[in-house]
Design a protein that fits this description.
Pfam family, one: IU_nuc_hydro
Number of helices: 8
Number of strands: 6
CATH class of the largest domain: Alpha Beta
Helix content: 40-55%
Oligomer: single chain
Largest sheet: 4 strands, mixed
Strand order of the largest sheet: 1-2-6-5
CATH superfamily of the largest domain: Ribonucleoside hydrolase-like
Family: Belongs to the IUNH family.
Low-confidence stretches: none
Keywords: Glycosidase, Hydrolase
Structural class: alpha/beta
Protein name: Inosine/uridine-preferring nucleoside hydrolase domain-containing protein
InterPro entries: Inosine/uridine_hydrolase_dom, IUNH, Ribo_hydro-like
Length: 173
């Protein structure tokens, strides 16, 4: 709505979309951040701002494991954020295990969607990217000719490097 905003940004990094694959459930029309307001996502893509999108297909590759949570909880001093983060992660993993009791293999980790998107702001090399023309289907009809690329989309991630950076950062808080 404010065209000067797009020009003022060096780059916009968005955790959203699903670019190479399908949702795990046919009941879900797409990745949550996009399907809850596809018109807004489309407006962002058409804004002219330089953009990088980190999609669900890539964020699902970086996971917080129960071992990671235990390592965060083992920090020596009681008041550390690391300890709190480890407790919260362990609780969330346990909740997901109870929520999906029949899922095999048993849930022992959870994806770190937003932390990856935040991390690539300062460490873009954590992911591999491809220039793509991206559009959001809102039911208004298809675009007749493929447009020029309008953003870079993450197509891969160095999950080990991200996990190491994330955990060492949290341990330092």
């Amino acid at each position: 709505m404010e065209p000067r905003l797009a020009a003022a940004l060096k780059e916009l990094v968005t955790m959203g979309g699903l670019f190479f694959g399908t949702m795990y459930s046919w009941n879900k029309p797409g990745e949550f951040n996009v399907f809850t307001d596809p018109e807004a996502a489309r407006a962002v893509l058409r804004s002219g701002a330089a953009q990088r999108w980190i999609g669900l297909d890539v964020t699902l590759q970086v996971r917080m494991t129960t071992a990671d949570a235990d390592a965060l909880k083992s920090v020596a001093y009681e008041a550390s954020f690391s300890r709190f983060a480890g407790e919260a992660a362990a609780t969330y993993i346990a909740y997901q295990t109870q929520r999906f009791p029949g899922r095999l293999p048993r849930m022992t980790s959870v994806p770190m969607h937003d932390p990856l998107a935040v991390a690539v702001v300062s460490r873009p090399e954590l992911c591999l990217y491809k220039e793509l023309a991206v559009n959001i289907e809102t039911g208004e009809g298809e675009i007749p000719n493929p447009p020029a690329p309008n953003c870079r989309v993450a197509v891969g991630v160095n999950a080990d490097a991200f996990r190491e950076r994330f955990l060492s950062f949290i341990k330092g808080l």
